[in-house]
TrEMBL record:
Transmembrane segments: none annotated. InterPro entries: DHC (IPR026983), Dynein_HC_stalk (IPR024743), P-loop_NTPase (IPR027417). One of its GO terms (molecular function) is dynein light intermediate chain binding. This is Dynein heavy chain coiled coil stalk domain-containing protein. One of its GO terms (biological process) is microtubule-based movement. Coiled coil: none annotated. Pfam families: MT. One of its GO terms (cellular component) is dynein complex. Residues 2-299 form the Dynein heavy chain coiled coil stalk domain.
Length: 354
């Protein structure tokens, strides 16, 4: 009786110690959760830096380089227009029959402003108080192809250059610069257009990639929290059962010690185990048993190379499965082979079809 009482007292002491250990394990588990999150953020950032829009940046740089070729001419033309005043415009309106170069420039202006290319239309434009503003605010990004086609007659004219036009009219020189700048910009824009479309598609693809990575990160966070909660709940349940069965478990001290040691070993490996378990839930579903085993071996090897704690005998069933639930599945007809059990775990633990 005395020996039995001693065993009972020892068991009570052990139960109390396990309660203390459980309290101590809670911050450890929380730290492991933080470690997993930090690890995934690091992996995400590293991947982001490694794949940081190399193709996207190259396309954007190429497109911008093409546009930069046209911008100096465009800026020069706008500056030339800004230097004009009402007197410069008025000197053109007085012509009854303008010089050929003045007429040529004004015809080109009329075409760009979608007017009839003749002198009466040109004089009407020159009489508009907002004429110069219409030129500086011109929608250069959306010039119709038919307008550009009509404009080529003037662009290809060997006399249609600012230096030659200047000999006839200072105002027309500035407008000649503007017409040529519009033509050059449109040609460059035509080359840049497909590059812009390609850039937009590349940016969408990049966004979709990082969105998938973010989804995976959220899965890992979820399963990490779930695993910790399940582990804590399971440990608490064991302690409750141990307290109820104290009188019958006087000779179970060694088994409990082994259980605690194994639990502490599992805690050490929680980062790697949860990482691989989450990867299994995300990717496992479509593969055969043989290929799943190859994936596990490769993931364990990579974790070991990166010094991530991981169980060498990793088992998805042990990490995410519940022995009681699995036995219940078996009793209801689920085959007892590993792949069937894994598939059942994937279905119950995942948020989507595996």
């Amino acid at each position: 009786v005395k020996n039995g009482l001693t065993k009972l007292l020892e068991t009570n002491v052990l139960v109390d110690k396990m309660k203390v250990d459980l309290s101590a394990l809670e911050p450890v588990l929380q730290q492991k959760s933080i470690d997993v999150e930090a690890l995934m953020k690091k992996l995400f950032v590293d991947q982001e830096k490694a794949d940081e829009a190399e193709e996207t940046q190259a396309i954007a740089t190429d497109a911008q380089r093409d546009l930069d070729e046209a911008l100096p001419a465009l800026e020069g033309a706008n500056q030339a227009l800004s230097s004009l005043d009402k007197a410069d415009i008025s000197e053109l309106k007085v012509f009854t029959k303008p010089p050929d170069m003045v007429m040529t420039v004004m015809e080109a202006i009329c075409i760009l402003l979608n007017c009839k290319p003749d002198w009466p239309s040109a004089k009407q434009l020159l009489g508009d108080s907002n004429f110069l503003r219409r030129l500086t605010d011109y929608d250069k990004d959306n010039i119709k192809p038919q307008i550009l086609q009509k404009l080529q007659k003037y662009i290809n004219n060997q006399d249609f250059f600012p230096e030659k036009v200047e000999k006839v009219s200072k105002a027309c020189k500035s407008m000649c610069m503007w017409v040529r700048a519009m033509d050059l910009y449109s040609k460059v824009l035509k080359e840049v257009g497909p590059k812009r479309e390609k850039l937009a598609k590349a940016q969408v693809s990049e966004w979709q990639y990082f969105e998938k990575v973010n989804v995976l990160l959220n899965y890992l966070k979820f399963f990490n929290v779930l695993y910790i909660a399940n582990t804590m709940a399971l440990t608490q349940a064991r302690l409750t059962r141990a307290g109820k069965l104290t009188s019958a478990l006087g000779d179970e001290q060694i088994r409990w010690d082994e259980s605690v040691a194994q639990f502490e070993k599992e805690i050490i490996n929680i980062v790697g185990n949860v990482f691989i378990a989450a990867a299994c839930v995300a990717y496992y579903g479509a593969f055969t048993s043989h290929y799943r085993q190859l994936l596990i071996e490769q993931w364990i090897k990579q974790c070991q190379e990166l010094n991530i704690p991981i169980s060498s005998s990793f088992s998805l069933i042990n990490i995410l499965g519940d022995a009681y639930v699995i036995r219940q599945w078996n009793s209801e007809g689920l085959p007892r082979d590993t792949i069937s059990t894994e598939n059942a775990v994937l279905v119950t633990q995942g948020r989507r079809w595996p």
